[in-house]
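lol forgot to send this yesterday, sorry. struct tokens for the thing we talked abt
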């Protein structure tokens, strides 16, 4: 069994090295935070560890000491100085950090953007591909069903948990209220469960999850369906959330492995939200146009200047 395999087993709770919360501490952060308090020889061990975590996980104590140019007892002292019981305890925790965050420890190969910004082509390229994939994969029939449910709903509740999904839930609310839809967005798991418990037939939930595996969102959708509310999901295909909903707006977007760039699926899901909102607006038609007119009229007379803002905002 390798160090990484054993660390994965420990993360599942099979041994007692985890803390009282059941989690193995983020040992890489502990090394970085303790660096200023280490002795010079111990810092050389820390430098080797941070420079090549994969090597540090699998290397013997002697190999680690040799690369750092220190004695083996110094490696042991280093491990204890950062709060570990010894070398074995340190390596298990280090392996767990590698299981979770290897992608964040490696720098991606530079890509020439032609303007001194290697990320330029990555961000624009990922956005272009995400929109193309959304256009190719999205089912127009499912989009039309979503529009019908929104237009006929007594009220719409949007669920999204986490970074992009929370923002997209809010964006969905901002898109739909302009058409006169009674809509609210919730990004707190307890409020999601509480809100789902109040729903009735004729109400609608729109659930957003990039992975389709967010347990709190899936459970809130199940509660909503129990109380006979309709459900729409914006998520990845062939996921538990997709299977749990009446209408499935699904897109699969491959990600370029650069941890510093935005998630590409965000562009695709934002396009799905816009399409869904516009389709609902067309379905509502006259009342939606009148609501937009009233909003625009009252904004325009409130603000100075004669320039009209974008019609949809």
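and heres what i got for the seq, position by position
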């Amino acid at each position: 069994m390798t160090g990484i395999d054993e660390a994965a087993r420990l993360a599942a709770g099979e041994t007692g090295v985890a803390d009282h919360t059941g989690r193995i501490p983020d040992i890489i952060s502990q090394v970085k935070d303790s660096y200023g308090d280490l002795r010079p020889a111990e810092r050389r061990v820390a430098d080797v560890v941070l420079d090549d975590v994969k090597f540090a996980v699998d290397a013997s104590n002697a190999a680690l000491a040799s690369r750092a140019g220190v004695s083996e007892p110094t490696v042991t002292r280093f491990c204890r100085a950062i709060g570990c019981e010894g070398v074995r305890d340190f390596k298990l925790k280090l392996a767990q950090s590698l299981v979770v965050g290897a992608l964040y420890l490696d720098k991606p190969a530079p890509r020439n953007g032609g303007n001194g910004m290697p990320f330029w082509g990555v961000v624009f390229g990922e956005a272009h591909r995400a929109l193309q994939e959304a256009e190719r994969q999205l089912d127009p029939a499912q989009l039309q069903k979503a529009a019908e449910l929104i237009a006929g709903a007594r009220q719409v509740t949007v669920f999204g948990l986490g970074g992009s999904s929370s923002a997209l839930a809010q964006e969905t609310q901002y898109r739909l209220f302009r058409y006169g839809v009674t809509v609210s967005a919730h990004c707190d798991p307890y409020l999601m469960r509480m809100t789902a418990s109040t729903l009735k037939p004729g109400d609608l939930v729109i659930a957003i999850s990039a992975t389709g595996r967010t347990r709190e969102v899936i459970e809130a959708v199940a509660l909503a369906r129990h109380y006979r509310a309709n459900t729409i999901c914006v998520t990845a295909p062939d996921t538990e959330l997709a299977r749990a909903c009446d209408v499935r707006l699904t897109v699969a977007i491959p990600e370029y492995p650069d941890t510093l760039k935005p998630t590409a699926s965000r562009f695709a899901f934002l396009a799905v939200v816009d399409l869904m909102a516009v389709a609902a607006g067309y379905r509502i038609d006259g009342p939606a146009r009148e609501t937009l007119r009233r909003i625009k009229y009252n904004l325009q007379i409130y603000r100075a200047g004669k320039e009209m803002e974008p019609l949809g905002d």
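The chain has two domains: 3-105, 126-300. anyway ping me if u want another try
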